[in-house]
Specification:
4 helices; alpha+beta; 5-stranded mixed β-sheet; 3-stranded antiparallel β-sheet
């Protein structure tokens, strides 16, 4: 799977679109067996929005954040304890407006060096998921479903379901690896 890093070298730079922004970090790391894994989180059920959803670490750009990269890295450290010094930004994906055009999410793809010792902020993170890229590339695991008259991709984990804007981002990232 070492060619994953070569293929991801073709990612475009992280965009900086206009508007009310949020940024997420799509962190990847290589485990001891050589598999490349993605880090996703599950939002707690008590959240007002997106309760129980599978998401990337991230949040709104705050005053003091230099750019979407700074936001994504700060949020990943706050939510799951990924040290900024372990993050190497590889590039960005297309900004996503998840059903609310006034909110734009900027996905930042990064390689994270191991070991990552997860320290979950329990108010925002119920669990951490670490699927391999191989699992995510397995098209038989994905299902296209009708959601309010719109086709959306779904990927089932035992703990939760990946769908919506995050599934869109994951599939775009995977398109660089196919």
């Amino acid at each position: 799977m070492s060619d994953v890093w070569d293929r991801l070298a073709s990612l475009p730079p992280v965009p900086s679109p206009e508007g009310m922004l949020a940024a997420v970090l799509a962190p990847l790391y290589q485990d001891e067996s050589g598999d490349v894994r993605m880090i996703l989180t599950v939002r707690p059920e008590h959240m007002n929005t997106h309760a129980g959803d599978v998401v990337f670490p991230g949040g709104r750009i705050e005053e003091g954040d230099a750019d979407p990269v700074a936001t994504a890295v700060r949020e990943a450290e706050e939510e799951v304890g990924i040290a900024p010094s372990s993050v190497t930004v590889l590039g960005g994906l297309k900004p996503v407006a998840p059903g609310r055009p006034e909110m734009i999410i900027v996905p930042v793809v990064a390689r994270v060096t191991r070991p990552v010792e997860f320290v979950m902020q329990e108010d925002e993170v119920a669990a951490v998921l670490e699927p391999t890229i191989g699992e995510l590339l397995d098209e038989s695991r994905w299902e296209l479903r009708d959601f309010h008259s719109h086709p959306l991709w779904f990927f089932e984990f035992p703990e939760a379901t990946l769908w919506g804007a995050t599934a869109f981002m994951v599939r775009e990232l995977l398109s660089y690896l196919r």
